[in-house]
Amino acid sequence: MRIANIHVKNEFIGRLQGQSETLTKVQTQMSTGQRIQKPSEDPIAAINSVYHRTRLNQIEQYQKNVGESKAQVDLGHDHLVAVTGILQRVRELTVQSANGTYGKDDRQYMAMEVEELLRESIAAANASRGDQFVFSGGLTHTKPFREFESARNGLGKPLIERVDYQGNNLEHQVEVEQDDRVAVTLPGSQVFWGQNHLVVSLKEGANWVSDRDQVLRIDGQEVRATKGDNLDSLVQKINGAVPSVTAFARELPTGERVLAVESASPHRIQFEDLEGGSVLADLGVIRSGEEGKQVGNNLHPNTLESGGSVFDIMIRLRNSLLANDVETLGSRDLSGLSAALDNVLLNQARLSAVQTRLDFSDKKLSADRELTTERLSKNEDMDIAEATIRYNQIDMVHRVSLMTAAKLLPPTLMDYLR
Question: Are residues 186 and 202 in the same domain?
């Protein structure tokens, strides 16, 4: 009895199945355009694909951040340009009003124009994009400046008497690349401040000693006072932890040694005793209790302050015009206004520098996106021309194999006998 060689047949069939699978694989590659269908086909290429796709997702998010940031910075810059124009007009009025040829009525008309310019500058300082304010520091959803009015006899309209800053001293930063953050807004307490801020307590501090470990915060920087610290050691700790201010112990004409803090550049200093602490309240810098927690507007009423915001300077100037005080107009008011204008121009230049940096970041991200996309394509995409040639070669071999198998392995009844 003749028995077919089952091993030869199985091997032949196995080769035919392998060729068929290869044909199917190449056909799938051609239809999808992807060289790799499963990570197991090329683990290294699969890892590279994951890296490139992750990087593309990062670039997309960074480009969104840059786009949003550019809109925010452009808005802030445009409003600072407007405020600069307002201050230049107020300066012109100040120079004119200091001229002896103008009378009391003329200066009152000028005062009313300054009042309107003051309101316009506050509106610019409260600029917002959507529900986010540009100049409120890190508190982007808080309106930065709030004005308080009072009536004046004979003027027929209320005047702004005080403008409070409600934001904080932090910068709103946005990540534009891995480990690279850009400050896209500047705090209003810095941008719209005309002169260095000096705060002097009037409460005796020579005998003050911290009775426990406490933490205070100045301009957003924490200062740790340990048990046993006195006024001098506290001054050293503040100067070591808060670069934006200089602290010192000042001796008053009456002989008391008190704490004094001055800003290193024009901005309003913010003081805060953190939960459980009372260092600043005990030294008479801020109010105690709940009032002391109103950061930015919590200074003790007995402190001495010098320096002021752009709005404070404009309010003092307007009042000097109403009082027909020519001497003050030509000295204190003109000097303060010039300092305020210089500071606004400085911060306008800072935002211009941020605009330039964001433009460069946008170009760099676009180039990186193009390069990463190209690398991903080389890693994943199938060369259709090459795949077509390979498919035709395998298909021809497969057809020849089928014809050979048909001749060498004709099926007979004997093949089914075991």
Answer: no
